[in-house]
Design a protein that fits this description.
With about 80 residues, the protein is of the alpha+beta class. About 40% of the residues lie in helices and about 25% in strands. Helix 1 links the parallel strand 1 and strand 2. The radius of gyration is 11 Å and the shape is globular.
């Protein structure tokens, strides 16, 4: 099962990134543990700018602009092998 972390304080961009991730998982019918990380100490282990996306402990995205749904889909499929 994929381990996905959405990193951010809860801002609209962070919420949108989480929504896109869940949309892709639903469309691809892939099971994943999606965790929202808003603790700055924990986020700083991965990224310096929010929002961030970590899949299977690999940083896939950091900061703006938000990744397109197609890019998120590519990352999820890549890590789901």
């Amino acid at each position: 099962m994929l381990d996905i972390k959405v990193l951010g304080p809860g801002c609209p961009n962070c919420q949108e990134l989480e929504r896109r991730v869940k949309q892709v998982l639903t469309e691809l019918d892939i099971q994943a543990k999606v965790t929202k990380v808003s603790d700055f100490a924990k986020m700083s282990k991965y990224i310096m700018m929010t929002p961030g996306l970590v899949i299977n402990e690999k940083v896939k995205h950091e900061g703006k602009p938000l990744p397109r749904v197609e890019k998120i889909e590519e990352w999820i499929q890549e890590e789901n092998k």
